[in-house]
Amino acid sequence: MRLLRTAHYLLPVVLCAVIVGPLFAQGDEGALLRLKYEAGETLTYHVTINGLGSMQAAGQQQPLSIEGTFDNLMQVEQVSPEGNFTVSSTYENLDLTVKMSGQDMDVPINLPDIRFVIMPTGKILSMELLEAEQPAQGAASLQAMVASSLDLESLLKDIKCVPFPEAAVKPGEEWEGAVPLAAAAEGEEPRQMKMKLKYVGDEEHLGRPCARLESTHEMPFGGVGAEAGLFDIKGIETGETISWFDPELGRIIGDKGTSTVEINMGLPAALTGGQQQVTVFVEMVVDSQTELDMADDG
Predict the structure, then answer these.
(1) Which of 30, 68, 94, 252 has the most CB atoms lying inside 10 A of its own CB?
(2) Which residues make Cβ contacts (< 8 Å) with residue 112, sequence separation at least 6?
(3) What are phi and psi of 134, to 5 degrees?
């Protein structure tokens, strides 16, 4: 019973972490990777995820799984005179099944909406969490506490914030990049999502000629800002992804990848109903696949 009660409070946080994964002009000098959006357009990505793992708490371990689909909508609000894009990212049609020890779990999942400004090179200039309905008390309130850090970090993959090289790249060439994460707890060192990327070559995907990119990432989870005194979150996500970029549309049209998420969390007794803090360890391996709704792009 203690593990089930703990899972009820922690799973909204864990699931937000696991859910949430340019244009090239090919010539003799290689491919120049750039984003190209138009003001007023909306990109709809259909996402499928399947994850298996386990949760350990209070001396107990239970298998944990998640599967389902949802849509990630990226609306291009404006394009600045400098060519930077202001984009809002929202989620619709969440159809997710979460099971622990084979039993369905009634877990509230409320993915936060965000707005960000991104350069054509993929560099993010700013990011903000948009206001949403206040979650209910209990499990959902825990999710709200960490929405400004853990959730925001996990959504970085969804907004395709890949830092592209300034110069053109040729098939076989590799590069590295880093994306600053949301503010950590006071006194902690700044954190980054580190990536290594490779332009593999040209490949057809969804009937269109694309640039195939293969990448790895490592993303740490840290403190939760002002709420860090209530509970502590530490963890890391690592993963590999294959992405396809459309040379004419100037955007990703599909990707698939696998991520491993490991999270350690200390929950206070007030949240779990016990007499002392409960230490929880969650590990999940998640496969995901994303495809752009080509009807939106003609």
Answers:
(1) 252
(2) 16, 129, 130, 132, 147, 151, 152, 155
(3) -70, 130
Domain boundaries, the chain: 2-297
Type of residue found at 257: G
Question: HEC profile for 73-98?
Answer: EEEEEEECCCCCEEEEEEEEEEEEEE
Contacts of residues 125-128 at CB distance under 8 Å and 24 or more positions apart, as own/partner, are 125/84, 127/152, 127/182
Architecture of domain 2-297: Roll (2.30)
Separation CA 245–CA 253 (nearest Å): 6
Q: Any idea which residue has 């110069």 for tokens?
A: 167
**φ, ψ dihedrals at 190, nearest 5°:** -60, 145
Helix H or strand E segment including 270: helix 269-272
Q: What are phi and psi of 84, to 5 degrees?
A: -85, 150
Question: Nearest-5° angle of CA 253, CA 286, CA 162?
Answer: 40
**The model scores a pTM over 0.70:** yes
Q: H or E segment at 52?
A: strand 42-57
> What is the residue type of 34?
R
Alpha-carbon span 183 to 205, nearest angstrom = 37
How wide is the angle at C-alpha 66 spanned by C-alphas 65 and 70, nearest 5°? 175
Reported as a single tens digit per residue, the pLDDT across 212-259 is 999 999 988 765 443 444 567 788 889 999 999 887 788 889 999 999
Please, what is the end-to-end C-alpha distance for the chain in angstroms?
52
